[in-house]
């Protein structure tokens, strides 16, 4: 009896939740061809143009069909806020199963609720201001050795920056004492996984990038389990690195520890989230500064003042100094805006949702567009111009979301910015760079980067630079 009345109440509840949805129509737009939808149109051109074209035709909320899924695209600050913040509980993160398998299904960004919150707290704690302050010398050492390797040679900027962000990722995740051969094993397998992650998944064929990556992922799991086992046997889990943080993480007050698989999936998840993203933005910064010599001079002037303050680079850069670089900070923000390397994100409606009189059906994907906000003349005057001075005034709330927003917003944004500040400091005070075949074309890898990853040659600056081999401060940090 009680059960029957509970069922009736639940059904009534469901009806009242769903009531506003009845009679609503889908947003305007086209679902394209059967099965293929509009996937070919999206991937055969710059995605920003695909979206801009539809925004013009249909307005800020429209439907499409990509990668085998019906989607509602939303492109206003209000709609992005609704999906990511105010009604975030109605939209769950969603990724293709092949990608989830590659990273590891227990990585935090695939989850919602308690487990997500627990992992997020751990990651945010590891990336808190105290930890970042302690990271400055390690980032500085990684930057110094990356630039030393590049010096006097022509190389692909993006590949060089990927190596830098990998090194920073490894030192922050595993601490300073990671043996070189283990780091090399991690690097080799990580890059095989990354290649497979970005390839078309064809399971069962052993020679495909995808199958190779699955095997490399298994090897990475074994390497991580090995590192954890050594730490346990030494009774030293690690103080302030992410691995130690996760190994010590308990559910509630002294509750259950995380399993090795949970830890491994989150370690690789964070490394993935941190690496290509930061490397792409760093590559864009080098391009934008190269193309704007006056701005480069202004950044150099600001950084030379810090360099002089540090006794000509003999003293290490400090966290406080990185907070006093307004011009360089503006260049970073403007690069994040103009490059907009994360064009959009994906969510899935967990129930029918009404928005602005339209229906977003349960199970449909929802794509908040970031790049079109960043490139809208309504929010950013002359949006295609690289103009860091626009960040002298804070952008309108909700219009600048390079790191997303809400419960899944990027917890690594301050570390990413720190890497950019430290790289710029070292780069402009000690070096100059020549871009081979300058071009405005874009390569997708999968994030947008300047054509071919920006081939460039790095040269020692003739005036005001430090001596070969780096300053004593760098040598000490390395
Ligand atoms: C310029 C560099 C970066 C950019 C542009 C960027 C951007 C983003 C964006 C837009 C999201 C939200 C995605 C969504 O809502 O679906 C995100 C999430 C995330 N990012 Fe970053 N990110 C960067 C660097 C980093 C770094 C350095 C780390 C770690 C050290 C990191 C770790 C993460 C993690 C763990 C998440 C998932 C958070 C969650 O689901 O709760 N990111 N990032």
TrEMBL record:
Q: Which Pfam families match?
A: p450 (PF00067)
Cellular compartment(s): Membrane
Involved pathway(s): Plant hormone degradation; abscisic acid degradation
EC number(s) stated in the UniProt entry for this protein: 1.14.14.137
Which Gene Ontology CC terms are recorded?
Answer: membrane
Please indicate which superkingdom the organism of origin belongs to: Eukaryota
Q: Which SUPFAM superfamilies match?
A: Cytochrome P450
Q: Does the keyword Transferase apply?
A: no
Q: What does this protein do?
A: Involved in the oxidative degradation of abscisic acid.
Q: What is this protein called?
A: (+)-abscisic acid 8'-hydroxylase
